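Please, is this right?
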Amino acid sequence: FFTVILIMDPSLVGSSSSVELFATLPLAAGLFFALRAADDGRPRDALLAGLCGGLALCVKLVVVPVVLFYLVWIVVLRWRSGRGVQTAALPSDDSGRSATAAVHVRPALFRFVGSFVLGGGLVLVPTGLYFVGNGAWSDFWECVVRGSRATSRPPLPFYATYLWGLAKVYWKAFTPILAL
């Protein structure tokens, strides 16, 4: 709500507006829909989470980890709740006890991932096609992707290692919240 007020305020003009401010609203909506998809189990909410993530990516490319976190959040919570997995009982052994088979992922879990990716694609594909259709794809790529890589630290080959290190720190900090 406050993001909308800040964006619409007439005093927010020119270079005083921050791009992050414009990415906040779709990110917040994406988090809302990701939580609903994980809790209620509707692929429609995963689609809307992906759509909001795609909108946020159109505004600011550095929100990629946040958008991917939405997808991981949906999959992990669906998995932990048992609503995305299926177990089967094995025949009893000599002791008369039965065991459970390995966990099989239900197709519903793939529907959530597919819905999320489709939602993001509904925004990102037309955006890319717009730049291709106007002959500006190379300019777009140079400005958005290569420019982001050139100014980011650490360099791209070490980016995954850097993110993994941050993920371990954040995992320790947020594990109590995820346990709820």
